[in-house]
Amino acid sequence: MEFNCSSQEAINTLYDAALSTMWWSRATDTANDFCRKGRELGFARFELNHQITPEELETFDLDRYHVGSVHDPCPAVIPNKKLEQGDLQVTSLVEEKRRVGVDTLKRSIDLAFRLGSRLVVIHPGRVDGDHSLDNRLRDLYRVGLKGSPEYQTLLKDVKADRLERGKPHLEALIHSMTEIVDFAKDSDLFLGLENRLHFYELPIFEEMEVLLKEFQQPWVGWLLDVGHIQVHNQLGLMSFQQWLDAFSPRMVGVHLHDVQDILDHQIPGSGDVDFAWLAPYLPSHALRTLEISSSVSFEEFLPGLRLLEKTGCITSINSKRRNASC
């Protein structure tokens, strides 16, 4: 690869942050091509996401590249689509299926422990059944009807429906997490419950309140996904400010990405997220990970990294090298 001034600057900077394998373009790059490019951008470590298969895992040079976090379910022994459809989740109301979800999460924790990682990102499951109200709300938003009487009525209905139907799944999640927390207690890992993109996934605000009260271990907490909560904020489903005010002290990690309209996983600075406003809410111990679409090029990545450093969302480990000749 030929490097111009800006790419050389990236190489001379090492960020205290991870790059998610979401950015891996499998059509053109091997696992180690992805890691090499991530290191050239300045990432000190990497996050294995929930799309990594056991076969792909074997191709990473784990002696050269450090995996700082593992995003459950990883490795994806069970096809991720089945997990996402809700039939094999830690929130399942069918005991045999709930057990599969628990065992899958335990495998992710085992992997993180073996790799010397610090964090496991947990998908806390979803509500079974009809999600059409959420889908309809997003359709209305996309055609510019936010704020209309139809939209406001639907918004009220989806919130009420989601809160009521989520109750038995929250009980199942607490049951699962009780076992998981006991399983992970001697692992020296953080466990982060991620706020999710779709409203019928757990947890919504009321559920996170219950979970953080139930599990008060300092290594169990909130994994803030910035793009997901920004989408919910724009839809009127949740308040970004309310979440930060209530839960930022319990934040153990953060997924950083921007949102254009309600399309997430965009490079920071290209959308609606105010990263300067966000930065003071991020605890110093919360592990930072960039979750960026593979459609974003190497060159497009650089301004986003500089913005995150400028606003204080990420920091440079070797800032003295940033002034290297260029």
Separation, N- and C-terminal Cα atoms: 17 Å
Mean pLDDT: 92
Rounded to an integer, what's the Rg over CA atoms? 20 Å
Low-confidence stretches: 1-8, 82-86, 320-326
CATH superfamily: Divalent-metal-dependent TIM barrel enzymes
CATH level-1 class: Alpha Beta
Broad shape: globular
Order of helices and strands: HEHEHEHHEHHHEHEHHEEEHEH
> What is the domain tally?
1
Tell me the number of helical segments per DSSP (H or I, 4 or more residues long).
13
Describe this entry's structure for a reader.
This protein has 326 residues and is α/β, with parallel strands linked by helices. It has one domain: TIM Barrel (Alpha-Beta Barrel). Helix content is 43%, strand content 15%. The protein has helices at residues 5-11, 31-41, 54-57, 80-84, 95-114, 132-142, 149-165, 167-184, 205-214, 226-235, 240-247, 275-278, 298-311, and strands at residues 15-20, 43-48, 67-71, 119-122, 190-194, 220-225, 251-256, 258-260, 263-266, 287-290. The strands form two sheets. It has an eight-stranded parallel barrel with strand order 1-2-3-4-5-6-7-10. Helix 2 (31-41) links the parallel strand 1 and strand 2 (43-48).
Task: Spell out the blueprint of helices and strands.
Elements (H helix, E strand, L loop, with lengths): L4 H7 L3 E6 L10 H11 L1 E6 L5 H4 L9 E5 L8 H5 L10 H20 L4 E4 L9 H11 L6 H17 L1 H18 L5 E5 L10 H10 L5 E6 H10 L4 H8 L3 E6 L1 E3 L2 E4 L8 H4 L8 E4 L7 H14 L15
Parallel strand pairs: 1-2, 1-10, 2-3, 3-4, 4-5, 5-6, 6-7, 7-10
Antiparallel strand pairs: 8-9
